[in-house]
Structure formats: C-alpha cells, structure tokens
Amino acid sequence: MPARSIITARQERLGAELRKLRERAGLSGREAARALGIAESKLSATEMGRVGVSANRVRYLASQYSCDDAALVEALVAMATERGKGWWEESRGSLPRGFLDLAELEHHTRYVKSVEIVNIPGLLQSEEHVRALYEDSPLGLTQEQRELRVAFRLRRQKVLDRDDFLYEVVIHEAALRIRKADREVARRQLEHILEQSERPQVSVRVVPFDRDGFRNSSPILLLVGPVPQLDTVLRDAPHGGAFLDAEAQLATYRRWIAEVQKAALGVVESRDFVHELARHT
C-alpha cells in the first residue's frame, strides 16, 4: 500500500496496537520483519500508521505474535477496514488536528465518560456559550476562524443524537458557576444542560463544593473502545490535549473517574441541583 500523506488518530492507534502485540511477543522490529519476510522499514511504517494494513495482514500479524485475544484482533481488523472520510475531514487544514482527532474518536466510540472541573463539557455547551468562549479567546482568532470553531463544536454535538451512543459526565459545581458571558447566557447554559440530560443516552451528575471525598482537580475524557485495550483518554495539557492509551495510564484514569463518580450526586439530585442553580442565576 502507498504511504499516506495524512495520518489520522485512528490509523496511528492501529499501528501502535500492532507494535504493542509485537513487543508483548518479545520481538524486536528487526526480528519480526525477518520472521514475517518483509522489510523492517515496511513494518515500521505500518506501526506508525504511515501505510495501511489489510484485515488478513492484521490477523496474520496477530497469529505470528501469538495473540489469542479474538475480541481484540477483530476490533483491530475493524479499524483496518474502515473506509471513507468522516465529516471532520472537511475541516482539515482549517482547524488544529486535535479538533479532528477528537471528533473522529467520538464518532467511532459508543460510550464516553467525562469529568469536568471548571469548564462546561463541549458536548453540552449551548451555542451562546461556545461563541462566548471564542469571542474571549486569547488566541487572536479572526472572525472566520471563530465561526469555524463554533460550527465544528456544534457539529460534534450531533453524536448525542445517536441511539447507540452513551454519554456519562460528572461536572463540578465550579464549572456550573463560572460565567463565560453574562448572567442570561449563563442561565440558558444551565437550562441547556437540563434539556440535554433528559436524553436517555445522557447522564449528568454534579459534585457540589461541599461534597466530601472529592480529590480530583483535572478534567478527564475517557472514550471507551470495543475492548478495554482500545480505550483512549484525552488529558488536557498546557499546549493542547494529549491522547493516552498505555495500559497503566488507562487503569489510572478509570480509577480516578470511578472515585469522582462516588463523590457525585445521583442523576435526579443533580438535575434538582442544576435547576436550583439556574433558577437563582
């Protein structure tokens, strides 16, 4: 297969997972390439997502690496056989790659868990709230750039229209109280959260300031894969988000999310909490 001019997050992840299988088998790149009868450069390009890989090749590699996890292998085969471009590709070259990577990952997952401390989750932001964020952005964006970002975030939210999508979010009271615009926009944002929480596939829970047992101070986004090994965490970083997929990292963030959920109010209590907050805003 010819080398790709553009590599997506999913393609990189597939290559990374094939590399993990090789490393678990205790094989170096050179040893694996020799056993497979291919050039080491081709194997390296495959593991970096620079070239595509067929379903048969994925199964063959898994067999050579003694991987007997059928569910994982079939999930990797599904990734290898994905075709076509998603809606986010229309924005490639106009928006930062991280925007597109997140939209792609959301599109291919059926379950997202999120923890937000000082920001309203992107999937639950009202259009007014989104516009306020970019109007006050320190990035020096032009009006066209702001409009592109607003439109992209609103398009991302359509994932909530899917019947096979589950969104589970915990929001700290701080995020609900911090105003990104004026009082009216803040109140309508709270009402928007209440409206979205009525969807059967959306669960919103709140951690009040006075709740005991809350020790987390960082936002977390966990995109659940078809098998646990393919989960992905998006962790905010000073210069953009970072996608994490190492087993130890995934285990840590799953545990943190579980701890936050224990500290949060129940779904009904949370709705009442947001309703009262909106009523007094």
Produce the secondary structure layout.
Blueprint: H1 9-24, H2 29-36, H3 40-47, H4 55-64, H5 70-80, H6 97-107, E1 111-116, H7 127-135, H8 143-156, E2 166-172, H9 173-177, H10 183-197, E3 202-207, E4 220-224, E5 232-235, E6 242-244, H11 247-263, H12 267-279
Parallel strand pairs: 1-2, 2-3
Antiparallel strand pairs: 1-4, 4-5, 5-6
Helix pairs in contact: 2-3, 4-5, 7-8, 10-12
Q: Tell me the structural class.
A: alpha/beta
Question: How many strand segments?
Answer: 6
Termini Cα gap: 58 Å
CATH architecture of the largest domain: 2-Layer Sandwich
Rg result: 21 Å
Query: What general form does the structure show?
Result: globular
What is the third-level CATH name, the topology of the largest domain? Endonuclease, Chain A
CATH superfamily of the largest domain: Endonuclease Chain A
Helix fraction, binned, reads 40-55%
Query: Which strand order does the major sheet show?
Result: 3-2-1-4-5-6
Oligomer: single chain
Uncertain stretches of 5 or more adjacent residues: none
> What is the count of structural domains?
2
N-to-C order of helices and strands? HHHHHHEHHEHHEEEEHH
Question: What is the tally of helical segments?
Answer: 12
Give the overall average pLDDT: 93
What is the name of the CATH class of the largest domain?
A: Alpha Beta
Beta-strand proportion: 5-15%
Largest sheet: 6 strands, mixed
